[in-house]
Amino acid sequence: MDQRIGEVRLGDGTRIAYARAGSGPALVYVPGWLTHLELSWALPAERAFYSALAEGRTLYRYDKAGCGLSGPADRAPALELEDETLTAVIEAAGSGPVDLLGVSLGAAVAVRWAAAHPDRVRRLVLYGGWADGARVASPAVREHVLGLVGSQWGLGSDVLTDIFAPDADRTTRRGFARYQREAASAERARDMLATCYAVDVTALLPQVQAPTLVVHRDRDRAAPVQQGQALAEGIPGARFRTLPGHSHLPFVGDAEALCRTVRGFLGLPPTRRPATASLTPRQREVAALVAEGLTNREIGRRLVISERSAESHVERIRIRLGLRSRAQVAAWVVESGAE
């Protein structure tokens, strides 16, 4: 599966990049943290998760104003800017109703949009979200993290990766830390984090009319599970489902269980593709030989298979991991400890 990049403009001319993948009714992914459409798609674990969601749906993702492939923004991050951005992307998806999947801060953004546009939201899924940002962390912790991100963005991105993805492998952690830094400046990252802490959609929850599923990992290190419960309790008729795990990022940990839960609520069958990037034992063996610098012919001789079979294995490995070259395969082997 591949993604197609497009763009829309906000009222003030700010350029917003968005991506489409799959086919079917629209499922709009409302992001929580900093975004980068290209770097996130290149991260095998994240790409596998999105590809699994996109079976039977046209999955729309987007970069926030001032982030990733989107243009610079004169306005500071704010929920009003989030609302306008989401509206522009949904309009690009067509005039019909959409399913919304709000993740982290995106849960609050999706709640606001669903409450304001009840006729446009078919189903609403909220993952790892919160109703009141002031209850996500203590004032001392919030001040410390905001100061770290604003003054030492390199270290700050590593710390946030530890909080968001304690279950991730080395490759995913490095990739995520890198694309946080490349997605936005330190100032933009700090202001976006401040927006996360300032949000409060408690009063809007009773106005949501769409069938809603709230999903939360029971030991989420970034967002307390009690805040997920608050979302579900405030939305009429909402279902609440907890899944085991520490990681806040949806594509880290048991992404299969999360994907299966979301797809089931949307009325979709289990996906035919894994929601996590993995290799068969033979593929891992071939990948290790690529990392040694062997050619396809040399791999064939080592494994007693034809050169063409070796070439096919390498191609499948690249596709499965979302990588473009043998050099990237070799780097994945080293960083993931797959030798």
UniProtKB/TrEMBL annotation:
InterPro entries: AB_hydrolase, AB_hydrolase_1, AB_hydrolase_fold, Sig_transdc_resp-reg_C-effctor, Tscrpt_reg_LuxR_C, WH-like_DNA-bd_sf. Signal peptide: none annotated. One of its GO terms (molecular function) is catalytic activity. One of its GO terms (biological process) is regulation of DNA-templated transcription. The keyword DNA-binding applies. SMART domains: HTH_LUXR. Keywords: DNA-binding. PROSITE patterns: HTH_LUXR_2. This is Pimeloyl-ACP methyl ester carboxylesterase/DNA-binding CsgD family transcriptional regulator.
